[in-house]
């Protein structure tokens, strides 16, 4: 969501002629995130978000845009892609694949309470169930194969202790077997800043561009690691229990999922530690970029390793 590719109002006005969105009234770069170029777009018919895809190919976009349309059509609050006059959900702008979607209302939370976590837990389970009928497949682009391949590139930037931790955790995760767990479409990046709140309700889930097919509980682990983390990177028990209990009221967990929970919490921490290391030390240039501190998820991983026995107890009904 940084600006890597500049779009002028004149260029966008010409591009928008193929869309039923009226006249361009405003264009503003969004200075957050690190994967795509995003702009807020205001037209005579409303407010939208324009995304230029810096890494995703035209062959991959039907999965992501189709998923948002699928979920929105089933009541999940998320952006709705806008089709052009020919029915296409994306086109090309300044040499990059580009799409425009509805702008969902609200803003992300600065302070999170157990009630917020309960809302997110139920919504995540509902999203997982709605995604079961989505037929397009997408392998996880940042799963075990990716972090194993990325590890040698980031190791030179780590001190000895962190390097040992990273190598040991990659070995640990390689020994896990999650393929038999319930699977489906997951968001894979449901952090606080990817949920906008309109008062007490969720206005929308955003940023589906890491969505993929994987273990559903892995998505829960990623979400819990962010929404339920305390200041010392331990899990805040009231928030974690609120989220997990609300999730299970909508989609009860299988015994195999309960057994895999501590390892999946670690997997979720590892994935974001490696990606933040990569973004910090091997970044792409952009006009507006905000690489996040990788040490945060190193500490999360260390905590999840140390508290594995306690985290298993959070799944009690």
Annotation, overall tally of beta strands: 9
Number of DSSP helical runs: 10
Query: What string, H for helix and E for strand, traces the elements in order?
Result: HEEEHEEHHHEEEEHHHHH
Terminal CA distance: 38 Å
The CATH top-level class label of the largest domain: Alpha Beta
Number of domains: 2
Query: What is the C-alpha radius of gyration, as a whole number of Å?
Result: 20 Å
- Using the alpha-carbon principal axes, give the shape: globular
CATH topology of the largest domain: Aminoglycoside 3'-phosphotransferase, Chain: A, domain 2
Please give the largest β-sheet: 5 strands, antiparallel
Q: Kindly report the average pLDDT value.
A: 94
The CATH homologous superfamily of the largest domain is called Aminoglycoside phosphotransferase (APH), C-terminal lobe
Q: Strand order, biggest sheet? A: 1-2-3-5-4
In the CATH hierarchy, the architecture of the largest domain is Alpha-Beta Complex
Kindly state the percentage of residues in helix. 40-55%
